[in-house]
Amino acid sequence: MINIAIDAMGGDFGPYPIIEGTVLALKERKDFHATLVGDPLKIQSLIPKKYSNRVSVIEAKDVIGMDEPATEALKRKESSIYKAVELVCQKEADAVVSAGHSGATMSLATLRIGRLKKVSRPAIATLMPTYKGKKTLVLDVGANVDCKPEHLFEFGVMGEAYLKAILKVQEPKVGLLSNGEEETKGNELTKAAFKLLQKLPTFVGNVEGNNIFDGSVDVVVCDGFTGNVVLKTGEGVADAISRLMKQNIKKTPIRMAGALMMKKVFRALKKEIDYSEYGGAPLIGIKGCAIISHGKSTPKAIKNAIYQAINYVQSDINSYIEKRLEAL
User: Fold this and answer.
1) Is 121-276 CATH 3.40.718.10?
2) Mean of the pLDDT values across residues 153-158?
3) Residue 93 and residue 97: Cα distance in Å, rounded?
């Protein structure tokens, strides 16, 4: 049975939403064991007795705060995230899920679990919605602020692997994020990366920001600085549109009546852009699995992060990445 290590203390709202999300996952799936790391008294009081045989609790006396530097992570061996990652490092768990300090999670997963062969920089990947009903995988979205061309090439291979192994897309289209579709567009980094990515048969060339949301490509590669800006901008635009719609709907009774008629449409739209539907972002390129969730994660988000971890472990993505990079 798959064992998922879960940092029970790292989220913005304490252990409740994390443990509630774990319980939701335990209710719906019987193919995993949960190892919760944190304060045993707080954790055990929230676990129903009927799931006690599928839950283990590891005590951790320390929590790394969101405002603390990620460099603290390696020193704080009693922290919940350190102990959760260490379980994967020691092969006592198959994956780690954390809504805590993302920098600490990334650093510990990379340094303690280790990188896959031929991977120089693991990348954080996230799925973005499109109006064609499919998803676009964007990486890196924050793990590596400064990148070299070979890093972007590796991201392309890792993104391709994720689409094939997890989303079952047989021939994913890989694009390089730039300021124009022409091969001559871009900065020094993207121009050099373009030449390397041409080794990939699935590479379709440069893409622009709008292509992330139009479904024309399956994977969009960029450095972590650019990717994080894209991610936060996308989240901000989605939130702004939602708020503007609510404000305008409330202005007249006719609009409110129309909104009621469109309730199913609005519900479907909300689902498409709702972060909790994905649960978290995988750190691709490590010898295991780490899912990095938002600090404000709801129980639903944690549940889906656990599902994502299970799917990742059950796939052959890591062996595919190693073989692909070796061949190229």
Assistant:
1) yes
2) 96
3) 11
Can you read off the two tokens belonging to residue 226?
A: 């650019």
Residue 162 identity (one-letter amino acid) = Y
Question: In whole angstroms, what is the distance from residue 140 CA to residue 312 CA?
Answer: 18
- Give the neighbor-by-neighbor strand order of the sheet with 281-284: 55-59, 32-38, 2-7, 95-98, 290-292, 281-284, 123-129, 135-139, 219-221, 174-177, 203-207
Q: Give, rounded to a whole angstrom, the gap between the first and last alpha carbons of the chain.
A: 34
* CATH code linked to domain 1-119+285-316: 3.40.718.10
40 Cβ contact list (under 8 Å, min separation 6): 57, 59
Q: Is 243 left (phi over 0), alpha (psi -120 to 50) or beta?
A: alpha
pLDDT in tens, 121-145: 999 999 988 877 788 999 989 889 9
184, pLDDT greater than 90:
no
